[in-house]
Fold this protein.
Amino acid sequence: MRTRIGVRDLFITDDRRLNLVWRLACYMLSWWVVFLLSAVPAAVLATLLRWPARYENAVFVVFAIPFLIGWTYVFRRWIDRRPWAGIGLTSPSAGLPQLGAGFLAGSVMVAAWLLLDSALGWVRFAGDEPATSGLLPAVGFVLVGLAANSGAGFLEEIGYRGYVFQNLGRRFPLWAAVPLSSLLFAIAVHFNQLTPFLVAIAVAVGVLLAVTRLLTGAIWFAIGLHWAFDGTQTYLFGLGNTNPPYSHSLIHLQAQGYLASVNGQDPMELVVACAAAGLGLLWLHRARRLDWGSRLDDGGQPALER
């Protein structure tokens, strides 16, 4: 029986894989490397064609999404040495309806947020993009903006509800893996703009997104919800930027009252995120009878209560 722990044991498991801490650290670092490398061809193309930044961001996702999928596949199969199914990115034929449903759910969340702000008198309608730029340019701004924002849904969900949550859920019970993966998501993705308020929102949204994976058995719904929650607040409902030119959002809003004094840290965003996470947990409890003390298997599926 082994009692001594050598230097090798700090890095390598008994089955000769990198241990969990190092796998997560290497993957999260490589996630940023993929992000930065994908930005290079997008920047070159945008410079050659003299495109504005919003087009460059849309081109970026064309490079970044397949690059990250490919890299995550390599990492999962050759570093983890575990099946790809555990990432939760099922076939598009099964996943696209879930993505659409998630996008709708995320849009409803942002609409509820807008209604709360309006009821409190924290925002006022200041115009709309068709009246400012014309109908066709306004439609173009919205479509390009949403396309560019798809990166938030695909890249962050593949990385954090896919790879990170799967590895944590395989090692720890779900009651620990869900909040821990959400905290890592909040810190690692938003490290350059961390505030307690942003961390609270990111953790609440992370819990919600993890719950949708447990409900659906895949990350497609989470991708759609994340994409819509980030994208529609900026390019449809106007909550992402309340100053001219309003990110060319379809609706133009101006902050007033309490909201004008807190530098965009809108408590109603946190309220909506926490309420959605609570509803998701309740739905999960009623729909699947999940055993929160269980762990994910290598295919990404949790155990149910008997």
Notes: Residues 197 and 267 are 9 Å apart (CA to CA). Residues 135-171 form the longest helix (37 residues). The chain has a mean pLDDT of 92.
